[in-house]
User: Which sequence fits this backbone?
């Protein structure tokens, strides 16, 4: 980024103008200077720019980036922060309260887990984990400390009022008995395999730290050639760096459905898709996760479609292909189709006269959550309550990753959620983990 662009960015950011949005219910005492959080921002550029305003009200005491040019950029925004290139050293910065993680996906579960083990509140960009084992480990650490720590995964679309409205109407029976849930995303970024060796990385990039726990792959500048905030699309489809669309748009889109169904971890998964590529996650895939009944609904299959695979439309009047990222709830009386901000209710059949459904009164609506990142900052200082904490989010990504494991396995997997194991195939069980380089452990 040129220095002129950088100046423009700083000028136009709310931080520069002093414009900061506080959620309703934000405690006045939490705004006292003495009550500011000491925050470390790990991964300081790219998507991190979307966090500058919300953490700018706090003490950003440490910033960390494997790219020293990115660190210098963030250093202009947070001149008082100490700079680090290795997140393990950054987590030892004295008197930290909280961390915001905006690094590559292969490091999320590591940094999140290490941070919680040090008693730190954590905001982690999506996806929280890229293997089932990582989701299990992070959730376990969180559950032991949930009375002390506030956590949030970066599924900020959750703040759209549509999320609450959908939860209300599905739970209140607008489709009758809930029978099946689908979510889909049409993003397609096909790649043949890992990129070829392109020589030495530039001096400002600590490439070995960028690889972090993942197996070695030679440097290639294409992994770093995306625009800020979208560079993840250069690396998140490779098995050792991400989990493809499951973790990318899948984290946002499945959240539309997940927020409505009170599911935890599935008991079985099946998947089909394009041929398996050992380097790259599939573009096209359909995964079905089987969830047991809970106290308000029967057992449901939750389906994830990506890369061109789509659920069948309930009626020829409706072209689901016009909804790039959406969700559909099928019930005994009809359907609800939704994207992030809108919903369509479709009663189907002669008996679907809507008399079985009573819209809520205004005072019965689920309250708005306010600003998504601020909800976490506020929670760190008050009641620790967030909408996408590490229980909700680890369950959701574990469910998605079990679908991906079923795709790799090429057959149905049966899963014991309590033991966290595949019970019908040792080979499939091995797919719940991913390989790490020597010297890297999730528990540090
Ligand atoms: N919530 C959303 O809507 C949203 C949008 C975009 C990206 N994201 C997520 O944000 C994350 C970053 O995406 P991006 O496009 O900014 O990627 P990026 O490749 O630009 O990385 C972000 C920053 O982290 C630094 N970095 C990478 N690995 C690091 C490490 N191990 N330690 C310290 N710094 C490291 C990079 O140098 C860069 O400055 C991804 O996990 C992505 O899924 C979320």
Assistant:
């Amino acid at each position: 980024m040129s220095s002129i662009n950088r100046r423009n960015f700083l000028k136009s950011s709310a931080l520069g103008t002093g414009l900061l949005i506080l959620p309703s219910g934000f405690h006045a005492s939490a705004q006292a200077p003495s009550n500011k959080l000491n925050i470390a921002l790990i991964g300081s550029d790219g998507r991190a720019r979307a966090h500058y305003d919300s953490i700018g009200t706090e003490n950003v005491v440490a910033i960390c980036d494997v790219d020293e040019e990115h660190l210098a950029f963030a250093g202009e925004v947070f001149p008082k922060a100490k700079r680090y290139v290795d997140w393990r050293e950054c987590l030892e910065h004295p008197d930290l309260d909280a961390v915001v993680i905006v690094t590559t996906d292969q490091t999320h579960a590591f940094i999140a887990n290490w941070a919680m083990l040090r008693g730190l509140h954590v905001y982690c960009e999506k996806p929280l984990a890229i293997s089932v084992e990582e989701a299990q480990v992070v959730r376990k650490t969180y559950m032991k400390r949930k009375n002390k720590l506030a956590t949030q995964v970066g599924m900020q679309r959750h703040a759209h009022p549509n999320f609450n409205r959908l939860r209300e109407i599905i739970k209140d029976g607008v489709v009758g008995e809930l029978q099946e849930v689908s979510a889909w995303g049409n993003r397609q970024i096909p790649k043949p395999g890992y990129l070829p060796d392109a020589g030495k990385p530039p001096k400002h990039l600590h490439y070995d730290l960028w690889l972090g726990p993942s197996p070695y792959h030679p440097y290639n500048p294409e992994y770093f050639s995306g625009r800020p905030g979208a560079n993840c699309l250069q690396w998140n489809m490779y098995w050792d760096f991400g989990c493809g669309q499951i973790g990318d748009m899948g984290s946002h889109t499945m959240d539309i459905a997940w927020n409505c169904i009170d599911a935890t971890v599935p008991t079985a998964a099946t998947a089909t898709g394009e041929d398996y590529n050992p380097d790259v996650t599939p573009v096209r895939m359909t995964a079905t996760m089987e969830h047991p009944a809970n106290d308000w609904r029967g057992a449901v299959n939750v389906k994830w479609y990506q890369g061109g695979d789509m659920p069948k439309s309930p009626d020829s009047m409706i072209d689901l292909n016009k909804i790039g990222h959406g969700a559909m709830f099928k019930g005994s009386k009809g359907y609800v189709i939704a994207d992030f901000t809108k919903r369509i209710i479709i009663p189907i059949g002669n008996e679907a006269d809507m008399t079985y459904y009573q819209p809520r009164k205004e005072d019965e609506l689920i309250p708005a959550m306010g600003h998504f990142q601020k909800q976490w900052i506020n929670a760190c200082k008050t009641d620790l309550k967030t909408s996408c904490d590490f229980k909700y989010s680890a369950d959701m990504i574990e469910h998605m990753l079990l679908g991906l494991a079923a795709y790799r396995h090429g057959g149905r997997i049966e899963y014991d959620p309590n033991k966290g194991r595949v019970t019908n195939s040792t080979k499939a069980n091995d797919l719940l983990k991913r390989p790490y380089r020597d010297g890297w452990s999730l528990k540090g």
Remarks:
- Residues 42-48, 64-67, 70, 87, 102-105, 107, 125-126, 154, 156, 209-210, 212, 229-232 surround nicotinamide-adenine-dinucleotide (CB under 6 Å).
- The first helix runs from residue 3 to 12.
- The chain has two domains: 3-157, 160-189+245-363+390-430.
- DSSP finds 13 helices and 15 strands in the chain.
